[in-house]
């Protein structure tokens, strides 16, 4: 691999790893705020306990997200200084504002929330976590504006004195049509990610509490009765958490599909090559079909076998079954005439399969959550096989989000900023393969350690009793016996 490929790989590793925690932080912050507002309104103790529980998950996730986010922003100076030098006046305001939101707004008020229990008035304390939730959403909107500039450059002009791009309108940058379409899609995906984690933990703890209650059911001592009462209380609280997580995942899945449909139409307008690559559509077609599955071969990977849904691509791309969708061959000829000789075709197999895996894996996650809600309606016990499969549920939205970003970034190639700067032009001068490889191995090792730490902390939090007094005593929930 040459220095360009290694630098792209480094950026991919850092970005994908960081984005595993971003949707969780957004969703967990909003959930913690909603639970505390429910406690403030109803006074029900289970909402207070669940607020503290979700807040603890948020703090662990937020800490890892901030650390990895720092590297993500410094990536432009590490490997892409030519790009950062030319477009720094455009990117600078967004990165600065996002940094202030993450470090000064979110971190400050999250600390106030954590240390403010029993010290701040209830309404003030609830306001701190609401501010954190608003801050995470604003942070996502602003950083997506920077990414949307790379997808659809707007609000810039070339400065004749410096030869660099300068920002002409912050409002226009934030109002980029790609950003306005990508933002709700991102929030819907975040709801799925956080909901899946809460559903998995809640369902596991309900099963654990049921096993604990069964173990003391026949006992008659006062201690056994107290244990049974605690197990019943935890079962009720975590049942609420599981249902909340199920609704977040299922509704988030539906909203992801709706917002994704709109985003696809916007992308078709500004980056038609990306949609053509997503379908492996080489020839321009009217009433274009959508391939559910395809096999390709030869040097260019053109599909020789596919299972198609008639007219669906035209509907997805332009909203009309008879619409014409431009193909790769025509777009390549157009771009070569417009931008000069060269290949403007991205890695079609990567675009094709990442697009389908994004959709398919997300649909499976939403379907599992909907199945849990349906089988557990009106106090019924969900099917045992479904409950036993839920611990792996959080992996599905994480994978769907990852495939989505792989599609978004790789299907834009060879552009770093579409139509303006290629990836090769944005690379830092003088960078060597050895330097990039060393930093890549270092980042990978550090991120591996962070992943283990995060998993162990989340596992420990998931096993702790909701009652703070019991948790402080160091007691944890053991692995439950199967409940059939």
In a nutshell, what does this entry contain?
This protein is mainly α and 484 residues long.
Can you put this structure into words, describing what you see?
It is built from 17 helices and eight strands. The protein is mostly helical and 484 residues long. It folds into two domains: 3-271 and 346-472, no CATH class; 272-345, no CATH class. The strands form four sheets. It has a two-stranded antiparallel ribbon with strand order 1-2. The chain has a two-stranded antiparallel ribbon with strand order 3-6. It has a two-stranded antiparallel sheet with strand order 4-5. A hairpin with a 4-residue loop joins strand 4 (290-297) and strand 5.
Please outline the helices and strands.
Elements lengths: L2 H17 L2 H21 L2 H34 L2 H35 L6 H30 L4 E3 L6 E3 L2 H5 L2 H39 L6 H49 L1 H8 L5 E2 L3 E8 L4 E8 L2 H7 L5 E2 L2 H12 L8 H28 L8 H6 L5 H16 L4 E3 L3 E2 H4 L6 H31 L4 H5 L12
Helix pairs in contact: 1-3, 1-16, 2-3, 2-5, 2-7, 3-4, 3-8, 3-16, 4-5, 5-7, 7-8, 7-14, 8-9, 8-12, 9-12, 12-14
DSSP summary: helix tally: 17
* Global shape: globular
Strand content: 5-15%
Q: Cα distance, first to last residue? A: 53 Å
**Order of the strands making up the biggest sheet:** 1-2
Topology order in helix (H) and strand (E) letters: HHHHHEEHHHHEEEHEHHHHEEHHH
Tell me the major beta sheet: 2 strands, antiparallel
Bin the helical content.
Answer: over 70%
The domain count comes to 2
- Given helix and strand content, the structural type is mainly alpha
Strand tally, please?
8
- Give the overall average pLDDT: 88
Radius of gyration based on Cα positions:
25 Å
Which runs of at least 5 residues are low in confidence (pLDDT < 50)? Answer: 469-484
């Amino acid at each position: 691999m040459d220095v360009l490929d290694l630098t792209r790989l480094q950026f991919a590793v850092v970005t994908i790893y960081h984005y595993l925690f971003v949707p969780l932080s957004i969703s967990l912050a909003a959930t913690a705020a909603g639970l505390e507002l429910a406690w403030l309104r109803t006074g029900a103790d289970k909402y207070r306990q669940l607020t503290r529980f979700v807040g603890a998950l948020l703090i662990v996730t937020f800490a890892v997200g901030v650390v990895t986010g720092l590297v993500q922003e410094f990536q432009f100076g590490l490997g892409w200084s030519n790009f950062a030098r030319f477009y720094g006046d455009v990117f600078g305001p967004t990165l600065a504002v996002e940094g202030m939101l993450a470090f000064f707004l979110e971190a400050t008020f999250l600390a106030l929330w954590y240390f403010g229990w029993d010290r701040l008035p209830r309404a003030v304390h609830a306001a701190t976590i609401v501010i954190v939730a608003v801050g995470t959403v604003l942070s996502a909107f602003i950083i997506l504006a920077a990414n949307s500039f790379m997808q659809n450059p707007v609000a810039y002009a070339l400065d004749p004195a410096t030869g660099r791009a300068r920002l002409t309108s912050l409002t226009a940058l934030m109002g980029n049509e790609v950003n306005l379409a990508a933002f709700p899609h991102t929030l819907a995906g975040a709801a799925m990610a956080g909901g899946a984690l809460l559903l998995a933990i809640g369902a596991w703890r309900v099963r654990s509490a049921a096993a604990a209650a069964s173990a003391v059911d026949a006992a008659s001592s006062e201690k056994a009765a107290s244990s049974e009462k605690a197990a019943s209380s935890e079962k009720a609280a975590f049942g609420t958490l599981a249902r909340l997580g199920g609704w977040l995942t299922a509704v988030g899945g539906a909203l992801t599909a709706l917002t994704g449909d709109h985003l696809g139409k916007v992308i078709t307008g500004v980056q038609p090559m990306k949609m053509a690559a997503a379908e492996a559509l080489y020839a321009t077609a009217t009433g274009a079909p959508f391939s559910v599955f395809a096999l390709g071969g030869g040097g260019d990977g053109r599909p020789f076998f596919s299972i198609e849904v008639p007219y669906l691509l035209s509907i997805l791309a332009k909203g009309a079954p008879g619409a014409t969708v431009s193909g790769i061959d025509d777009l390549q000829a157009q771009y070569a005439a417009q931008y000069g000789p060269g290949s403007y075709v991205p890695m079609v197999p990567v675009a094709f399969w990442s697009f389908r895996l994004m959709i398919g894996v997300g649909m499976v996650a939403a379907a599992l959550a909907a199945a849990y809600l349906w089988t557990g309606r009106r106090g019924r016990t969900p099917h045992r096989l479904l409950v036993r499969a839920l611990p792996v549920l959080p992996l599905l939205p994480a994978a769907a989000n990852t495939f989505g970003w792989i599609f978004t970034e790789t299907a834009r190639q060879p552009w770093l900023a579409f139509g303006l700067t290629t990836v090769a032009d944005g690379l830092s001068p003088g960078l060597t393969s050895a330097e990039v490889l060393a930093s890549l191995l270092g980042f990978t090792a550090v991120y591996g350690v962070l992943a283990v730490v995060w998993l162990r902390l989340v596992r420990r939090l998931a096993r702790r009793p909701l009652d703070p007094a019991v948790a402080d005593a160091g007691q944890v929930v053991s692995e439950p016996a199967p409940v059939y």
